[in-house]
Design goal:
Elements (H helix, E strand, L loop, with lengths): L19 H31 L1 H5 L5 H33 L1 H21 L3 H4 L2 H30 L6 H29 L2 H8 L1 H19 L5 H10 L6 H8 L1 H32 L4 H29 L1 H24 L3 H27 L7 H18 L1 H12 L3 H18 L30
């Protein structure tokens, strides 16, 4: 008699479950490593909003210089899918751990070198060229990071705690923002505007070296994903063409995962990167005010991710995600109305509610995407979907928002753009494959058919 996926045991007898101590190390490694990666990524975003225009594009107007700086910011997003493709291929063939170590080293080296990069005044055209090249390396590192960090957490997790475990890499995003915001706030309080613009902005980039060392030591201490090890042993050989297999056999999952990623990344970068430039230029607010608002939103975002992930483990990934996407769509216009008021209390409410909406999508997102793909192609599938959505969402958001405001002289156009991204993800998650929904015939989609890319009934 043929065994259907529903009849397969939830935990194959030869899969060795992670011990609680090992699970804690994995969670620490996923959180710390992702925090470091996103600290590096966001200090670039903050510097692009605050200083990169005059430092690397001095011949342009203020608006054009900001657009040029945000364009180099977007270059990192262009490289992210390539980093995801490379990491997905190697991660599905060789394992998750080695790819994660390499991604951390690449990101750290690029960030430190940005902190040492001469300006346009010192080396001319080579300054923006060097900035773009190093930003590409940053993008490759982040593109490689997310899928591996998420899978190490989710694949070590107990079945009923996958959303919560998967939220630890997600929490690294606001944690990185908090660290970068604190770094810039300290510099803003201790250095004059002239000193900060001259060389003070380099300090957060150089401090990354310390964080990289800590993250690397933790990451080297963990073991390979037990599900990957089991799948590799069952196959008897490594998966040679995971990228081809995931594109050919799982196109729907790729589209759904991409669409589900658009809103959280777009809104995250609008609130936490674009608003730095918008507040200090369009609204003429102090830089410290915008940095404090960003910091407050990031704290709420971090706590909200954990809370929404715990809720997702109880009531379902899709239900929690839909709540977040709906709130994001409804809140887009009130957000800008409150920010444009320039009243600090109203702005704080705007940022906090926006952070709650983003967190409600980000909390269940990791487990939601991972559960759509079999283990043999999971790194490739998760990375492609997430990074493609990040490019369409986060990579374009600051540029589109800046261009819309420049063309219309009104924040309403930016608010409508934010609303549109939320609706894209809302529609996408409604097409979530049945196998990854709570209450589907399979109680544990992460363990289904770990040795192939198709369910048993399709073989």
């Amino acid at each position: 008699m043929t065994t259907t996926p529903e009849q397969r045991p939830t935990h194959p007898a030869h899969v060795h479950a992670s011990t609680p101590a090992e699970q804690r190390r994995v969670l620490a490694a996923s959180f710390l490593g992702t925090t470091v990666e996103w600290y590096d990524f966001f200090i670039y975003g903050a510097a692009a909003a605050l200083v990169f225009g005059p430092q690397f594009f001095p011949s342009l107007s203020a608006t054009a210089g900001t657009l040029a700086a945000f364009s180099t910011f977007a270059v990192g997003f262009v490289a992210r899918p390539l980093g995801g493709l490379i990491a997905g291929h190697l991660g599905d063939r060789k394992g998750r751990k080695s790819v994660l170590v390499a991604s951390l080293l690449a990101m750290g080296a690029a960030t430190v070198l940005i902190g040492l990069l001469p300006t346009y005044e010192q080396i001319g055209i080579w300054a923006p060229i060097g900035l773009v090249v190093l930003r590409l390396v940053q993008g490759l590192g982040v593109g490689a990071e997310w899928g591996g960090a998420v899978l190490m957490a989710v694949e070590h997790a107990p079945p009923r705690r996958r959303a919560f475990y998967g939220s630890f890499p997600q929490m690294g995003v606001p944690a990185g923002i908090i660290l970068s915001s604190v770094a810039f706030l300290v510099l803003n309080a201790t250095l004059s505007t002239e000193v900060f613009a001259s060389w003070g902005w380099r300090i957060p980039f150089l401090l990354s070296a310390v964080l990289i060392l800590i993250g690397l030591l933790v990451r080297l201490s963990i073991h390979e994903s037990p599900l990957f090890a089991e799948a590799a042993a069952s196959r008897g050989r490594q998966n040679r063409r995971p990228l081809v297999q995931v594109v050919v056999r799982h196109p729907r999952e790729l589209l759904v995962g991409t669409g589900a990623t658009v809103a959280a990344t777009a809104l995250g970068y609008l609130v936490l990167v674009y608003m730095l430039a918008y507040g200090t230029t369009a609204l003429a607010l102090p830089r410290s005010t915008m940095l404090w608002l960003t910091l407050a939103a990031a704290v709420v975002w971090l706590v909200g991710i954990a809370g929404s992930a715990l809720l997702a483990d109880r009531i379902g990934r899709r239900r929690v995600f839909v709540i977040g996407a709906s709130l994001a769509a409804v809140w887009a216009i009130p957000f800008f109305l409150l920010v444009d008021s320039t009243h600090t209390a109203g702005m704080a409410v705007a940022f906090v509610v926006a952070a709650v909406a983003i967190a409600a999508m980000a909390g269940p997102q990791a487990a939601l995407i991972a559960e759509m793909f079999p283990v043999a192609v999971r790194y490739s599938g998760s990375s492609i979907a997430y990074q493609a959505g990040s490019v369409l969402g986060g990579g374009l958001a600051p540029i589109v928002a800046t261009a819309l405001y420049s063309a219309t002289a009104s924040s309403t156009s930016v608010a409508l753009y934010a609303m549109a991204t939320a609706l894209v993800s809302l529609v996408a998650v409604l097409f979530l494959p049945a196998a990854s929904r709570p209450g589907s015939p399979s109680p544990d989609p992460l363990h289904l058919d770990p040795t192939t890319t198709r369910p048993a009934k399709e073989r």
